Structure formats: structure tokens, C-alpha cells
TrEMBL record:
It comes from Seongchinamella unica. Residues 28-152 form the Glycosyltransferase 2-like domain. This is Glycosyltransferase family 2 protein. GO terms for molecular function: transferase activity. The lineage of its organism: Bacteria, Pseudomonadati, Pseudomonadota, Gammaproteobacteria, Cellvibrionales. SUPFAM superfamilies: Nucleotide-diphospho-sugar transferases. InterPro entries: Glyco_trans_2-like, Nucleotide-diphossugar_trans. It holds the Pfam family Glycos_transf_2. Keywords: Transferase.
Length: 345
């Protein structure tokens, strides 16, 4: 899986790199919300052109789809969203975000569709620019962003030690966010699905961008994943997209999504034994649908973008197991090295 790292040098914005489709933006980002207004406010700001670097509102749209709850976004917040955002509140009879995602993609206009299944995940300031750059590399590029949890351990573990929303908020405030967007790396750890690090297979991405024709070829999100939170539907999408014929997997090494604590289905919102049973149900459902257990896709990704100094500790921890492995088991593909850059914004 360890392949080459590619860096694009550009002083301009994404609109110079990508020709948008006639009458619409190049990229559509679909964000799903349910019962998380505090966390969603930060996530949505992190997707705004005010926070994202090197792009303008005309380069992309953000489609916010919220399934109804007793705790949805306020009218004041919705009214304040940037002009390239649209908000859609919908009723949902099943406890899954699958239908909301398919609806959001269905009303989107971009040539590329980026799915963020969990609206509690903030992003770093170069995500939009580098997604657009990634798609410029290949007509069949699937661009993914690695995932992290706020805190020094997985939130489903930290909750047993008293970690909660207040502790999460304090950490985010401590780095001077949003002025210090890349400081999120300083207060985070790899998410469970990305715990293997950059250079071994991951199991999902919570910010995955797919060309629209490939999305159509996949048939969108599979609506048979009807368990709470969608079960393993996001892992299923990641695997099917990465394994789609001819796809080039592009990973944004220097960017990330950062999960804020909100009592999610598998990230601390349930007692440990309840969560364990739910995960077992999710695994069994996946096996019924796909006729095999879930296995992470084996890809040879292109690593794209600038490398902020804050990411170096994660590069080191990702490389350590491979460097310690016997020579004959190490990946044969070479790595093209480049200078790490510091980023504080």
C-alpha cells in the first residue's frame, strides 16, 4: 500500500485548477446531520470558504441534509449559512442516514460528489482545495480524507474515563480554533477505522469524494443498510468506491476529519455492552448483504497535498510498524519524499 507521495505547487485557488461544469460547481459536498447542532455548527463553518483556503464559494456547494429530531439546527443558524450552502430538513422513518445521503446527492449539481455521513466531523482548511486537485489527477480519482477523534484516545474508550462534550469543547478552544485549523492534529488521535495509519489499509473515510459517473455506477448508498447509523454502509461505500474498476485512490495525507464527541452510535453514546451488540449486528448485516465479512480494500494510493508539521507525528507512527517489519514483508513500492511544510491556519 505504501506508494508515492505527490505534491502540487500552486499559488492560486482551485478554480484555476478545475473547470467547473456548466451552470454549477465542480464539487458537491453532502453533509448529514441528526441531533447534533453544537457539533454541526463547527463542521459547517469548517466547510465554509471563509475557513477553507484557496477556494471560493463558486468552486463548490455544500448540501446539508438533516433528519428530523428534537434537536436540529436553529433557524438563526440556517439563515446565516453561506450562499453556496443549502439546507434540507426531512422526516425519516428508518434509523439510517442512507436515504438522506442519496437524497442529497440526487439534488446536487457538482461533477464530483463528496459524502460526509457524520456531521460531527470538522475538517482542516485544505480539504476542499485538495479534493479538487485530487480529481484533476485522474477522471477516475476517488479522493479520501483520513479520520481522527478529538482527544488522546478513541472517544468510545475515553467516555469510560469521563470524557464528554465539555472536555471536547475545551480541547478545541485550547488550540485557538478556527484561526488555527491545523492545530486539530495536536489534540487528536487516529479514528478506529484509520488506526492502521497512512501506509496500511484503512476501513473507511468520513469525507470521500467520488466522480458522479462512478457514484452512478455504484448505485449510490445501498438502502439495505437500515440499522442505526447506517450500520457498515459507509465502510461499504468506501470499499466499493476504492475497488471500482480503474479507480485511482487519492489520499489527502496532510488533511483530516475530526470527530467531535456527541454520543454517536459507535463513538460513546451507548454503554459498552450495548455498543458491542450493535456492532455485532452491523457485522452480521454486512455479511448477509455482501455474503462475506468486511475486509478493508487493498489500494495503492497516491498521497497528495501539503504536509503540515502537525501531521509529522502521525506519519512517524504510521511508518514505524513497517520500518520494524522484516525486510521481506515490507512493501516493495518506493516512496517519493518531499519537504514537510508548517501550517498553522
Amino acid at each position: 500500500m505504501l506508494t508515492h507521495i505527490r505534491k502540487i505547487m500552486s499559488g492560486g485557488n482551485a478554480s484555476q485548477d478545475v473547470t467547473v461544469t456548466s451552470g454549477g460547481p465542480a464539487l458537491s459536498i453532502v453533509v448529514i446531520l441528526y441531533d447534533m447542532p453544537l457539533q454541526a455548527e463547527k463542521t459547517l463553518y469548517s466547510l465554509s470558504a471563509e475557513y477553507q483556503q484557496g477556494v471560493s464559494e463558486s468552486d463548490y456547494e455544500v448540501i446539508v441534509v438533516e433528519n428530523e429530531s428534537d434537536n436540529h439546527l436553529s433557524r438563526k443558524l440556517v439563515a446565516s449559512l453561506p450562499k453556496n450552502f443549502s439546507y434540507h430538513l426531512r422526516a425519516e422513518r428508518e434509523p439510517t442516514p442512507v436515504h438522506a445521503i442519496n437524497h442529497g446527492v440526487g439534488i446536487s449539481r457538482g461533477r464530483y460528489v463528496c459524502v460526509m455521513i457524520d456531521g460531527a466531523r470538522m475538517v482542516t482548511p485544505g480539504v476542499v482545495r485538495n479534493i479538487l486537485r485530487g480529481h484533476r489527477l485522474s477522471d477516475k480519482a476517488v479522493v479520501t480524507v483520513p479520520g481522527y477523534h478529538i482527544g488522546d484516545q478513541l472517544q468510545q474508550e475515553a467516555v469510560d474515563d469521563g470524557y464528554g462534550v465539555a472536555e471536547d469543547e475545551a480541547l478545541i478552544s485550547s488550540i485557538g480554533w478556527p484561526a488555527n485549523g491545523y492545530g486539530l492534529f495536536d489534540i487528536a488521535c487516529f479514528s478506529g477505522s484509520c488506526a492502521a495509519g497512512f501506509f496500511r489499509p484503512n476501513s473507511e473515510s468520513n469525507c470521500i469524494s467520488i466522480p458522479r459517473d462512478i457514484w452512478a455506477g455504484l448505485g449510490g448508498m445501498d438502502t439495505r443498510f437500515n440499522l442505526r447509523g447506517g450500520g457498515l454502509v459507509n465502510l461499504d461505500l468506501y470499499k466499493r468506491a476504492c475497488e471500482f474498476p480503474g479507480v485511482e485512490h487519492v489520499v489527502l495525507l496532510g488533511e483530516g476529519t475530526f470527530h467531535q464527541f456527541h454520543g454517536g452510535v459507535t463513538t460513546g453514546g451507548e454503554a459498552r455492552d450495548v455498543r458491542a451488540r450493535l456492532i455485532e449486528d452491523m457485522q452480521r448485516q454486512y455479511e448477509r448483504i455482501r455474503a462475506e465479512p468486511y475486509r478493508s480494500p487493498q489500494t495503492r494510493p497516491v498521497f497528495l497535498g501539503e504536509l503540515p508539521r502537525q501531521v509529522l507525528k502521525f506519519v512517524h507512527s504510521s511508518a514505524e510498524p513497517l520500518l520494524a517489519a522484516p525486510l521481506q514483508t515490507a512493501p516493495a513500492a518506493p516512496v517519493a519524499l518531499f519537504k514537510a511544510e508548517s501550517a498553522s491556519g
